[in-house]
Amino acid sequence: MKKRSLITLLILCSIMILLAACGASPSSASPSQRPVSITPTQRAISASPTVQPPPIDVSSSQVPFKVTRIDLSVSPKSIAGRACGSPVTVVYTATFHAVPNSVGGTLQFLYTWNNGRISPSASVTFNPGETTKTFSFSWSGNLPVDHTYPGFGKVVATSSNASGVTSPQVKPAGTCVSGQPFKLTSVDLSVTPSSIDDMQCGSSVTFVYRATFHAVPNSVGGTTQFIYTWNSGHASPTARITFGPGETIKTFTFQVSIPLYPHTYIGFAEVLTTSPDAVDSPQVHPIGRCG
Question: What pTM was computed for the model?
Answer without folding.
Answer: 0.51
